[in-house]
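Onboarding guide, step 5: your first structure request.
Type a short instruction followed by the sequence, for example:

Predict the 3D structure of this protein.
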Amino acid sequence: MKRQPSGFTGLVGIMDALRSERGCPWDKEQSARTLIAYLIEETHELIEAVEEENPDKIREELGDVLFQLLFLARIEKEKGTFDIYDVIAGISDKMVTRHPHVFGEGVCETAAEVLKQWGEIKKSEGRHEESSLSGVPRTLPSLLRAFMITDRASRAGFDWNKTGEVLEKLDEELSEFKEAVSLNDPAKIEDELGDILFTIVNIARFVQVNPEDALRKTINRFIGRFQHMEQSAKNLNNKPLAAMTAAEMDALWEAAKREGFF
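The system replies with C-alpha cells like these:
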C-alpha cells in the first residue's frame, strides 16, 4: 500500500483521492445534502465525547468531524466555488476582524464587553441588519434555538431585570396552562405549554445554564437509572417493571440514585 503524506495537506490529499476517478465508489456518490446526516451524527458523537471528558475519544471524534468538513469543501471545489484553503482564509480573516482587542487597538476587559463588540462588528459588516434575531438557524434543536433567540433579544435591550421577575412569569404561564387544560382546548394547551418552555429557557439563561445541555444530561441520567431498575427487577424477582407496583418501582429508582446512576 502506498504511504500517504501526513499532516493537514496529506488529509486533503486523501479526500481528493477518494473523490477522484479511481477513488471510492461510495465517496464519489455523495453530495452536500447526503452528508448532512453524517455531519450531524459525528457532531453529536463529539459532544458526547466532550461530556465524557475522554481525551482519546475527543481526538477521534474531532477527526471525524474534520473529515466531514473536508468532504463538503472538496465537493464545493469540484463545483468551482471554493476549497478548504478558502475556508481557512475566510475564518482566519473573520476571527482577526472580530477580535480587535487582541489583534488591534480595541480594549475589552470582560466577556460581556466582547459579546457586545462582536455584535456591533457583525452589524457593521452588514450581517443581521434586518433584525437582531436574524441568523439563528431554524434547524437548531428548539431549546437551543430559544436560548440563542432570547440571548440576542437581551443584548438588544429586551429583557427582564432579574431572575425573580422571570420566575413570576413562569407562575403566570403555569396558571394559564392549567386553565387551558381545564377547558380541554388542545390548541390553547399547546400554546401555553410552549410559553412555559420558552419561559424556562429564559430562567436558564438568567442562571447561566444552557437548557439544551441540562435536558440532555437529565435524559442521560434517566436512561441510566431506568436501565438499572430494569436490571435490578430482573435480578431480584425476574419480572418486568410493568408487573411491579408503584412502590416497588419507586424503591428501585431510589436505589439507582443511591448507587450513583446519574
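Each response can be followed by summary notes, for example: The chain has twelve helices and no strands.
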